[in-house]
Amino acid sequence: MEALEEKEEVEQTPEDAISLNISDFLDELERDVAVEEASVISDESDFDWSCIDTSHLPSSYKTNSRQEKELLQLADHFFQQYTHLCPDRKPLFIHPLNECGVQKFVSTTVRPTLLPYPDMYYWSGCASFVCDYLIMEPLKCPITPPSSLYSPTTILKYQRGNCFDFTVLLCSLLIGAGYDAYCVHGYATLEMCSLDQTQELCPRLRKPPEVPEEEDPNKYRIKYPLEPQSQFELQQKAKEEETESIQEEEREEEVVMEVEKPKRDPLHGLRVHAWVLVLSGKRKVPETFFINPFTGNQHSTTDECFLGIESIWNHRNYWVNMQDCRKGCKDLSFDLSDSFCWEVMFSESNEASQLPTESPKNDTNDTHKSLILFQQEKEEIAMSFEMPLSWVTRLKVSCREYENPFSRGKKVILYDKAKQEKWAAYANGDGLVERLTVYADSDCTEELEVKEWFKHREDLLYMREVNKQTQLITDHFRPGHPLLLKAHSYTSLEPETGHTVEFYHTARVDGLWKRFESATEMTEYFVGREDFLHMRYTEFGERDQETEKTGVTAEANPRPIVQIKEYFHRNPEKPADEDIEERIFMVIDDVIQLTYHLELHDTIASKVVFCRVIGREKREDEIFLSRENTVKYQPWSSEKHKNMRHLYNLLWELRAEQKDLKQQVRDSEAEMLNILMVREDEEANIKLSVSMYSTAKREEQHE
């Protein structure tokens, strides 16, 4: 059915110029089709389908059985009745030639097969394999279906085909996996038919759907009034900002429309395309959807890229669409049991179906008689005929072919301001299987960001992000790394140049999940610790320059620790004035400061500060405590906090903990140095692991 086709008026006045416009449009259409056919021929010059070897094919490919001949006669009869009752419709795609030049009914070309790979049990895995494994070839004539339809086995062998070849192969895999899938012959946009994705956003860049925010449990708390402001002034300011933003957006849209506005397609609504329809029900599919075989992407049945449907078929039957497609596919009903919407070739019930949805008022008696006879013949056929089995042999894909689907070594897809590259596993020595480059302009000249995905690396690196503006590199690791790494952000693998490391904290004893280190500071974040510690901040001073000039290593000449800050969550088992929230050790100034948590009714936190006595020499094994070097503010504390002996014991504990903290900081520095050494060695000597289930790769290693 010709989608979005404008009806011509039967009566035309002499002064009306519509006929001239139509003739001009048809002339332009013929020229465009001729140009596209010439371009297709030039593009396909590297492969000639007429030279393929068919001598080794089974006899079912070269001849028709008695049942198949009977099926072709019934299909011809159905086609004659269809063209007689619907003369304005386009010819149906029913029995094209196969690779041996033999007519075959399209339903028998579908060969349901379940391939022995886990991903091929799901529609996404089947669609991804088909679009990666095959090379897309456009139709020779963009407005007519092909004259031939080769078997899926031949398509798999030569790894190329048009949209109908893609669709039949994908539908065979989906039906074999248990889906209620159908091949669709219809019409689509130029971008979809030509596999032009330069106007689309890359799927990797699409943001996930936003999760609705939970209600604030304290939404009924008292809101104190803010500083009074004039509502009129705020409204005027908001209007000015809104008008400025609208004007700016309009200017930007005008510029974008002028630069990126696609040209009008003279063949819009006429371009033939084939895709897959998956009905809801089987395999717990919640909603009916389309699959574009060229991209493997899922589309809604209301997608505006699909402009109309002529017919659909599977391995059991053939249906003709009797619905109006002037508005595309968004209003179509996919209830195949509805005879007013879909005309089935072989009725699956005893109910009579009618080819036209409504008989026209000006029908002649001959048309009525032919319609009645056609319905009676269909009922007789349904009672006696059974669809023959597929003439195609079982589909087979070896492990080597499945693991290396790209016949040209890699696959390149161009999106809007992005380029995606794909490789097979083990094709690159560093395990690279995919790269996504994001650009700042549509001409793809200025790079903004590069993302790379890896497989089978022994260091468990699976993704790398590179910000081209800041040169910041972020490596992501799977669980199981010897150093428990989860992510590592850096600009250089040199120490003290700014590193952020994330860990799998559940596997660590100290609960550390993130650490940031630079030349002057180090910040550590913790999760799930029994002491409720959640952050530790360390400030470093400058190294001794004379020692540094002598070439001493960083371990022998450590950075001096200026201060250490620790922050704790609230411990509900302790009173607030005994539960420390912040602890500051000023190592060089010899000052310790404690800040306690607040109770619900408190406004000022309790504090204790231990200062160094001026003019007194500091000793490691001695603590000098007096009221002059102790400052405290504990308005809600009990009597024991006012006791000097309690403060003396507290100071002893803090001195011991300060010594341990300094050692922990040195251990963290040593751990960071070790991480950088290990990462540098892993990048210099990249090793790929081979799974015990990867038979193809193990055969290569054995050879």
Question: Could you characterize the architecture of this molecule?
Answer:
It comes from Hypocryptadius cinnamomeus. Its main location: cytoplasm. This is Dynein regulatory complex subunit 7. This protein is an alpha+beta fold and 703 residues long. It has a domain at 59-202 and 266-344: C8orf32 fold. Helix content is 28%, strand content 20%. The protein has helices at residues 18-43, 59-62, 66-85, 106-109, 123-133, 152-158, 163-176, 190-193, 231-260, 365-384, 399-403, 545-549, 644-684, 695-702; strands at residues 135-136, 160-161, 181-188, 272-278, 289-292, 297-300, 306-313, 318-321, 342-344, 410-415, 418-423, 432-439, 447-454, 461-467, 472-477, 485-490, 499-503, 512-517, 521-526, 533-540, 561-568, 580-586, 591-596, 607-610, 630-633. The strands form 3 sheets. A 16-stranded antiparallel β-sheet has the order 10-11-12-13-14-15-16-17-18-19-20-21-22-23-24-25, covered by helices on one side. It has a 7-stranded antiparallel β-sheet with strand order 6-5-4-3-7-8-9. Mean pLDDT is 82; it is low at 1-23, 33-45 and 349-365.
Short description:
By secondary structure, the protein is α+β, with helices and mostly antiparallel strands.
SSE topology sketch:
Layout: H1 18-43, H2 59-62, H3 66-85, H4 106-109, H5 123-133, E1 135-136, H6 152-158, E2 160-161, H7 163-176, E3 181-188, H8 190-193, H9 231-260, E4 272-278, E5 289-292, E6 297-300, E7 306-313, E8 318-321, E9 342-344, H10 365-384, H11 399-403, E10 410-415, E11 418-423, E12 432-439, E13 447-454, E14 461-467, E15 472-477, E16 485-490, E17 499-503, E18 512-517, E19 521-526, E20 533-540, H12 545-549, E21 561-568, E22 580-586, E23 591-596, E24 607-610, E25 630-633, H13 644-684, H14 695-702
Parallel strand pairs: 1-2
Antiparallel strand pairs: 3-4, 3-7, 4-5, 5-6, 7-8, 8-9, 10-11, 11-12, 12-13, 13-14, 14-15, 15-16, 16-17, 17-18, 18-19, 19-20, 20-21, 21-22, 22-23, 23-24, 24-25
Helix pairs in contact: 3-10, 5-7
GO biological process, one term: spermatogenesis
Main location: cytoplasm
Protein name: Dynein regulatory complex subunit 7
